Amino acid sequence: MNCIRAVGETTRIGKIFIRVTVCRRMSADDTPAGDASEDPAHENALQDVIAVDPDDDPQGTVNRLDAHTGDGIRHRAFTCLVFDDHGRILLAQRAHDKRLWDTCWDGTVASHPVEGQSQAAATRQRLEEELGISPDQYGELAVTDRFEYKRYYENAGLEWEVCAVLQVTLSDVSLDPDDEEIAGLLWADYEHLHDNPEFYRQLDLCPWFEIAMRRDLGDGEAEGVTPASE
Asked: Which pTM value belongs to this model?
């Protein structure tokens, strides 16, 4: 399904603040999202990620597409949870043409640092590229958690990551999202989202975000999740 951003003000529905997206069915002339993984020129085939051991120690670089297909290769990743001053988390819907977890909701950005790049530097880069959030809009940025997980997505591939978790609180919530990365945005009360999943069934959350949220709010370890050494 091809999603097009609708222009308009944010709407409040209970504890959810949502920016609506308008979707249309793909026509015969549209390219299916899944075709990208079959294209040898797919951008992921031209990139590398950092392979790591269970303690997040680097083991060299590997092809990004190889790391996310077949049995996968454990690699380094990060996710950043973005909050406002009212305890709300910013959820971002992944674009429809993402190869993995397309149209699912992330909290808030996630990606992979390149060789020689710190988690904090990679996070700053993705915040600015995906959401237009500049460093002067938040204060301290630090790793608050790290865990290993492995999850498969339909027949498209998998994530097998040692994932660092970072958090920022925005003093200025101005956003300028990249439509090629982000299909929709919403602000949700963080604890309400965690405590009342039945109210949010319409949101298909990314697995790394669900794990990070459960660990952050004291739920303990989920099945298949291993705390990584500091």
From this structure: 0.78
